[in-house]
Amino acid sequence: MARYVGPSCRFCRREGEKLFLKGTRCFSDKCAFERRGYSPGEHGASRSGRRKGSEYGLQLREKQKVRRLYGLLETQFHNLFQRADGMAGITGENLLMLLECRLDNVVYRLGFAPSRKSARQLVRHRHFTVGGRVVDIPSYPVAPREVIRVREQSRNLDIIHQALKEQGRELALPYLRLDKARLEGELLEAPKRSDIPTLCSEQMIVELYSK
């Protein structure tokens, strides 16, 4: 499956804000966004702040920000939006709920990985079980009451224990349960928009795809 392997800080610079795609490493003095807080490219610095975005441009930037936050490619994100659009309820809120229920995101939110990118790699390397079964698909939709557990042979991984030590970086999320002693967590219920800490305007994404 295709995936982006370039520098993560490039996305932060393009969106004009820190997306914390590399976890705690984003707080380093070496962060490219801190040193060059303008758009990437040859003319990024000279064009920075010159133009006020159009309505379409602002909607596009919001979509790109959310897509990059969750680490999805364009086709993946569009397919997920279509699924959200076909569900009952508010499309934008459905979209965020589906993004939050992805296995790689749940692993990250529980604190088993320092970033979603790391969580995706851990899932790919078969370090987790869901409902007692090994799942190596990052996009796997975790259902309410499914238990995510670190596999026995993966319980000594430094990256997991280090991430758990820094787990306080995230807000307490009412739709998740974490048992650090047993290295397991659970999605208690489908998350509500008011409980999801992602700062974005999902309605702008809906308007973009409705054009």
Describe the structure in brief.
By secondary structure, the chain is α+β, with helices and mostly antiparallel strands.
Task: Kindly describe this structure.
41% of the residues lie in helices and 8% in strands. Helix 5 crosses helix 6. The chain has 211 residues and is of the alpha+beta class. It is built from ten helices and five strands. It is globular, with a radius of gyration of 18 Å. Strands 2-1-3-5-4 form a five-stranded antiparallel beta sheet, with helices on one face. The mean pLDDT is 85. Among the domains are: 1-51, Ribosomal Protein S4 Delta 41, Chain A, domain 1; 102-189, Structural Genomics Hypothetical 15.5 Kd Protein In mrcA-pckA Intergenic Region, Chain A (Roll), CATH 3.10.290.10.
Give the CATH architecture of the domain at 102-189.
Roll
Give the helix/strand class: alpha+beta
What percent of residues adopt helix (DSSP H or I)?
A: 40-55%
* Poorly predicted ranges: none
Query: What is the global morphology?
Result: globular
The largest sheet, given as strand count, sense and whether it forms a barrel, is: 5 strands, antiparallel
Overall mean confidence score, pLDDT: 85
Distance between the termini: 29 Å
Q: How many DSSP H or I helices?
A: 10
SSE order in H/E notation? HHHHHHHHEEEHEEH
The CATH topology annotation of the domain at 102-189 reads as Structural Genomics Hypothetical 15.5 Kd Protein In mrcA-pckA Intergenic Region, Chain A
User: What does the radius of gyration come to?
Assistant: 18 Å
Strand line-up in the sheet with most strands: 2-1-3-5-4
- The first-level CATH class of the domain at 102-189 is given as Alpha Beta
> What's the CATH H-level superfamily name of the domain at 102-189?
RNA-binding S4 domain
- Count of individual beta strands: 5
What share of the residues does DSSP label as strand, in percent? 5-15%
